[in-house]
C-alpha cells in the first residue's frame, strides 16, 4: 500500500506540493496529469523519499526495497554494459542469483534488449537507454512503481510492450504512480486519475470506463478551466 | 555491518570497473604525477639543496594533488544520469556508499602512488629500497587519512557549482596535519634515522585515520540527504 497524507513542499516561495493526500492499494495505478511545473516530479520524489516533505508524510509498505523508480534521467553508468548495469543495481537489492538470471533474461527479451545486453550504455540510442532504465527499475521486482514520464524516447513498439508490462504488474498486485503531461500516454493504464495544478490535486477520482478523449476533456476543464 | 561492507564492495567494484573502462581520471592522475616529478627534478638546482632534503615534500605534494583528481571524480560519476538518486533509493545503508567510494578512491590513489614512487626514486636518486616497508606504511597511513576526508568533502561539493574549485579549498586545510606528519616521517626515513623516531608520526597518522574515517562514516549520510 502507498499512503500520502497532507504532503507539502516548497522551493523558496514556490509551492511545489500543497496538501496532497491519497491512498493506493495493491493493483491500483494512479495517473497524475499536470502541466510543466505542476509539482508532479516533486510528488514522486517525496513519495520515494528523495525529498523530505515540509509537511505531511508518505508511507510505502516495504520501504525503499519495494520501490522501482523511473525518473527523467536513466540512472545508468554509461561505460558499463546493459547487463553490468542491471547486475550492479540488482546487487544493491540483494536479488538472488537464480532470480536475477531469470528476471534479466525476461526483461531484456520483453524490452527488445537481448541483442544489446553486452553493449555499453553510452553506445545506445536514447530510446534504447530508456528501455534499459525500465529494466533497471523492474530488475528487483518492486511492489511499488514510481514513474516519471516513462514513455519518453520509446518508439511505438517499445511503448506498447511497456504498457503490457505495467498492466501485468498491476494485475500482479503492484501499485503504480505514473506522472505525465501527456494524457493519452497514461490513461489506459490508470485505475485512478489525478489532475495537478500549482502543487495541488484539483481532481482525484477513479477513471471508470473513460477513455483518453474524456479524460483529456476533464483535464482541460480541471486544469485550465476551459 | 556485514551488509554495509558487502554493498560497499559492490559499489567500489563498480567504480573501479567504470574507471578501468573510461580511464579518464587514472590517466590524468598518472600523467600529472610524472609531469610534476619531472618538473621538480629538472627545475631544481642540485647544488643548492640536497635531493634528500627536498624529496619528501615533492613526493607528498605530488601525491596530494594527484589524489585530488580522483576525489573530484568520485561523486561526479554518480551525478551523470542521476545515478546518485538510484543509490539513495536503494535499500542500502548510506554509509555503504561512503565506504564504497573510500575503497575505490584508495585503490585509485594507491595505483597512482605505485607509479609515482619508483619514478620519484629514479628522478631524485633517493634510496627507498632499504626503507621500503616503513615508507609504504607512512604512505598508506597518510593516504587513508586524506582520502577519508576527501571522499566526504567530495560528496558535499559534488552537487555545488564550481565543485572542482570548492573541493581543494575545503580539503587542503584538513590535509595539512597528515601531510606535515607524512613529510616529516618520510624525511626521517630517507635520512636513515632509526625507526623508533618515526613511531610518533605513525601514531599521529593512525589516530588521524581512526578519527576521520569514523567521523566521515557517521557524517556522510547527512551530506547526501536532500
Distinctive features:
heterodimer; A: 226 residues; alpha/beta; 6-stranded mixed sheet; 3-stranded antiparallel sheet; 35% helix; B: 226 residues; mainly alpha; 83% helix
Description:
The complex is a heterodimer of chains A (226) and B (226). Chain A has 226 residues and is an alpha/beta fold. Chain A contains seven helices and nine strands. Helices cover 35% and strands 27% of the residues of chain A. In chain A, the strands form two sheets. In chain A, strands 5-6-7-3-8-9 form a six-stranded mixed beta sheet, sandwiched between helices. Chain A has a three-stranded antiparallel beta sheet with strand order 2-1-4, covered by helices on one side. The mean pLDDT of chain A is 90. Chain B has helices at 2-22, 24-43, 51-79, 83-89, 94-124, 132-157, 163-190, 199-224. Chain B starts with a helix and ends with a helix. The interface between A and B is medium-sized, with 28 and 23 residues.
User: How confident is the prediction overall: mean pLDDT of chain B?
Assistant: 90
Give the helix level of chain A as a range of percent: 25-40%
Shape of chain A: globular
Helix and strand run of chain A: EEEHEEHHHEHEHEEH
Please trace the helix and strand order of chain B, writing H or E for each element: HHHHHHHH
Q: What is the 3D form of chain B?
A: globular
Please identify the oligomeric state: heterodimer
What composes the largest sheet of chain A? 6 strands, mixed
Strand content of chain B: under 5%
- Unreliable runs of chain A, pLDDT <50, ≥5 residues? none
Biggest contact:
A-B, 28 and 23 residues
Count every helix of chain B, treating DSSP H or I runs of 4 or more residues as helices.
8
Straight-line N-to-C gap of chain B: 24 Å
Largest sheet of chain B: none
Distance between the termini of chain A: 35 Å
Whole-number mean pLDDT of chain A: 90
Q: Spatial order of the strands in the main sheet of chain A?
A: 5-6-7-3-8-9
Catalogue the unreliable spans of chain B.
Answer: none
* Total count of strands of chain B: 0
Helical segment count of chain A = 7
